[in-house]
Amino acid sequence: MLCVMACLVCSAQSYKEVFAEGRKTLSFGLHFGAIGQAQDLGLQIIVGSVTFYNVYVDFGGWPQAHGSDVRIDKWDEDRAYLFHFGYQVPVTRWLKVTPMIGYACDETGYTDGSDWRVTDSGIHNKFHADKEVKGFDYGGQVTFAIPVGKRTDLHIMGTYTKYCWYGGLGLGVKI
Q1: Residues 6+ apart with CB under 8 A from 44
Q2: Are 109 and 125 in contact (CB under 8 A)?
Q3: Nearest to 34 by CA among 174, 101, 133, 170
Q4: 67 with 102: CB under 8 angstroms?
Q5: CA-CA distance, 40 to 18, in Å (whole number)?
Q6: What digits encode the pLDDT tens for the residues 114-152?
Q7: What is the mean pLDDT of residues 35-47?
């Protein structure tokens, strides 16, 4: 808390200016991390994020490998998905904090090639979960914005929630 207060006092811009500038930024990010580690069910995830007018949204997951396989077999597999939304609070021009809420699901089990259905998009094999961790997810993100041009920032982001952790890079553009 003292660090945040010191950043606000030492900032060259007023907080009102920093906040207004943050609302005029569009940013996109790509993250890589893990889901279910704290619950002994770890799986890697890829996450994409968008921030517009300080509203943050992310979505991601890890697909099953044999969901559309045409062979009759059983495969041990994992799958995961998540989404969050939050509001990005600029502390200084280069430091932003985003509290977030959402949903996360991490499942391990098997895909059964003999239990399938056909739709317009192809064959879909049934996934049977043996163990799963899923539910309401909450946490936060810290973003460091490094200016790389007059209207562009490189964002280095770290996120930690109840079920997930991931880090990534993004690009912010002033609109």
Answers
A1: 32, 33, 34, 35, 62
A2: no
A3: 133
A4: no
A5: 41
A6: 776 778 777 777 777 788 888 999 999 999 999 999 899
A7: 79
CA-angle at 42, arms to 41 and 43, nearest 5°: 125
Residue where the block lists tokens 């997951």: 61
Q: Are 166 and 33 in contact (CB under 8 A)?
A: yes
The reported pTM is 0.80
Structural contact between residues 107 and 134, judged by C-beta atoms closer than 8 angstroms = yes
* The residue type at 47: V
- Report the DSSP beta bridge partners of residue 123: 118
Nearest in space to 30 (alpha carbons), one of 158, 155, 168: 168
Find where tokens 């499942």 sit: 107
